[in-house]
Amino acid sequence: xxxxxxxxxxxxxxxxxxxxxxxxxxxxxxxxxxxxxxxxxxxxxxxxxxxxxxxxxxxxxxxxxxxxxxxxxxxxxxxxxxxxxxxxxxxxxxxxxxxxxxxxxxxxxxxxxxxxxxxxxxxxxxxxxxxxxxxxxxxxxxxxxxxxxxxxxxxxxxxxxxxxxxxxxxxxxxxxxxxxxxxxxxxxxxxxxxxxxxxxxxxxxxxxxxxxxxxxxxxxxxxxxxxxxxxxxxxxxxxxxxxxxxxxxxxxxxxxxxxxxxxxxxxxxxxxxxxxxxxxxxxxxxxxxxxxxxxxxxxxxxxxxxxxxxxxxxxxxxxxxxxxxxxxxxxxxxxxxxxxxxxxxxxxxxxxxxxxxxxxxxxxxxxxxxxxxxxxxxxxxxxxxxxxxxxxxxxxxxxxxxxxxxxxxxxxxxxxxxxxxxxxxxxxxxxxxxxxxxxxxxxxxxxxxxxxxxxxxxxxxxxxxxxxxxxxxxxxxxxxxxxxxxxxxxxxxxxxxxxxxxxxxxxxxxxxxxxxxxxxxxxxxxxxxxxxxxxxxxxxxxxxxxxxxxxxxxxxxxxxxxxxxxxxxxxxxxxxxxxxxxxxxxxxxxxxxxxxxxxxxxxxxxxxxxxxxxxxxxxxxxxxxxxxxxxxxxxxxxxxxxxxxxxxxxxxxxxxxxxxxxxxxxxxxxxxxxxxxxxxxxxx
Length: 684
What we know:
Keywords: Elongation factor, Protein biosynthesis. This is Elongation factor G. The chain is 28% helix and 33% strand. The protein is elongated, with a radius of gyration of 32 Å. The protein folds into 5 domains: 6-276, 3-Layer(aba) Sandwich (Rossmann fold); 279-386, Translation factors (Elongation Factor Tu (Ef-tu), domain 3), CATH 2.40.30; 397-465, Elongation Factor G (Translational Gtpase), domain 3 (Alpha-Beta Plaits, 2-Layer Sandwich); 473-585, Ribosomal Protein S5, domain 2 (2-Layer Sandwich), CATH 3.30.230.10; 589-671, Alpha-Beta Plaits (2-Layer Sandwich), CATH 3.30.70.240. By secondary structure, the chain is of the alpha+beta class.
């Protein structure tokens, strides 16, 4: 493959709402640049980027994919990510891998949920921001209205660099505002007469916006009243690289109109890896600036793992600096381990091309690495460099996962680890209290995809169900109890007697065992067995089968037998004594409460607040952020498990929340009675 200088590379991320045409746009680019020899279609299941069987059957992107095209003397790498909110993690991990983020927008759809969510991810990002209004050939497509809607809702002000010629079925090309040329599929022409004033106005607006980002340009502009084409291009590239402006283009991915003009603009106007220096890094864990270069220190970012059942794991890698060759050793600072680069590939969907070396600015894939995962830095051994990793959203949807067949229970864990390594927003853990395998993520669609991958790739059938709530048991008053364990069998008997004082502790204090035995009424060697008997009983629960917390147990009296007493006898006596005493101390159930930040557009506030109160939620505060309200809410986990779909429904998909554990508190008596009754019935 041809080698490219850093300034002749472009890395693009296509992001936006589901159905905006990202995958079709990539397909058209591959076809027009002769990267492929036929134009694939989503409906036919033969596009380059949607190659996973699940994507083909669903006719939508479910995971990110990578491709490339050669255009003129430039190499363009493309990352295509899903638009569904369930897979927003794919967008978040991809942003640091590129210089240019292309928001592909449906010119007929208005301000969609997926677009809103995509734009939110860019709020604090320095990456160049480009709006590409797609589907310009569709009925009701409106370029300027689309840009106005983005500005009104998000505060982004996309400035047109290309303006469409014609609209809907008459959309036939674009005018390049900088070069003052009409670009049609058949070639370049003069600007249509009826567009002269529109283009003059757009040219003036673009000059003003670019001049305002640079003092030297501003002085020139104020003095001469205009900027040269060279000043405009260099100024725009610099302003984009610094995240100071947002520019807009137009096309139809279906017909291809405007796509080649956009590719020319990518080459001419958008920043290269060279333009974004210096980049932000961590040096010995502290923020620092770093000049990335082909001859510089090795620095790369693994942004995705794709588990191929036949080839093993592909690690998708953006190399910022230095070069990585087959057989080279490198370090993963996050894990403190070394790896060796095996085969290196350039990826085009599922197809791959051998690369003996990956150079600064490039995107490629490594295979069969032992320790490397998504969100890992790649550096030279001994380096003190690393990258600050993007922050991923916390789970908003939880399910217990079980194998359909008992024989698959052992296989499910290994298979799950491979599947969820592809998406770092999915978490898998064993709940120590309920002993369930809990899968959590950002939505139902995301977790259902895990099930399908388990079945299709690893032949493991599994199902999801609502998790048990990890309640805990405790007491509200103090009490005393005594128990004598006496058993006479044919041989040696069993004898142990204990007296307990049981008291409640402050929430979160756990368990306190106090030995107040004096005078040897119970020999000291039996005391650990007494404590063990209490602890084991606490773990199993007493009134509803949940762990007991926040109690103090004092053993203050008892008796023993020279022959018949044993550790086992005292363990049994302690267990029975604790059970009896616990029931006298007005036991209650505790439930976990989480703190949620619920983010909703202001117009849905009434419905959302009403719904929170029906879920036993408490609103602790609220803040206005632009057109959205951030509600700080405390909500029981029992209600939170089903909250995500309800919030989506109430807000037409525009509401979301983040959450973290807060504390445990008393379960209302009516709910506790049902939980206790259900457990007693299951035990009988």
